[in-house]
Amino acid sequence: MAEPKWLKDMNKDEYMKEDFEATGKSVAGTTIEGIDKNDPEWLDKAAKKVNAAEGNDYVKLDSGLLTVNQINWMLRNTIGELTFVDDNNQFLWYNRPQDPNYKMKAGRKPEQVGDTMKAIHPDVRDVIPNAKKVVHALRTKEAGHDDVYMPVPTGNLKELVLHYYKRVEDDNGNYAGIYEWVQDLYPLVKYFCETTGQKLVVDEDATTGATYRRNSDPDAATSASTKAAEEKKEEAPKPDTTTGASQH
């Protein structure tokens, strides 16, 4: 993943102290004790221990009243993949896809819920150190940042998978965890262009994106139209284009 300079410059000795085995407790006091965090049946066992609301039980939120079922339905149909990890580095939730055959871009399984961050990250290459860096950066609001953008090169100029990490705070501004949003941004950009009558072109003078383009295949079936040479041959959108004319 590409990472911003402020994240690259972080002190490794500091962020490697992140406890990915989740041996502590959540500051909010929400850690459920007495159950192995990496137990594949953690969700059912933990829910039973705390008598968790479920089904048609109502949940009063700060700006709404929904049943657990309604919350589940809404989150399952939310655009993108969402996960939540608490301040004790325990993976507590993800929005399970409605379609059981859907292949997640950041794969998660029901039996992983409750796992420690160490358990859900493969111990290969720099995966765990990089994950610790992101967590520690958001825990400490490194250089004033409360979110991290991590685009993942896919080798396709018409696909940009973004991993967006956002610091979650309680009502007093204390660190409460991180939610991650994963989404291929291209369908959104494509819709924007189609709606406004605009188009994407390669800026050959840009100082950013060169590495991404170089590592991508401009002749792929899904990305040929993004080549700068082809874009230059196309005429600029006319003022009377049928979509988004008023945007020009």
TrEMBL record:
Record field: compositional bias (Low complexity): 218-227, 239-248
Pfam families named among the record's database cross-references: PAS_10
For this protein, the parts annotated as crossing the membrane are none
Compositional bias (Basic and acidic residues)? 228-238
Q: Which intervals of the chain are annotated as region Disordered?
A: 207-248
Q: Which residues form a coiled coil?
A: none
Can you say what this protein is called?
A: Flavoprotein
Q: What is the originating organism of this protein?
A: Lactobacillus kalixensis DSM 16043
The beginning of the lineage is: Bacteria, Bacillati, Bacillota, Bacilli, Lactobacillales
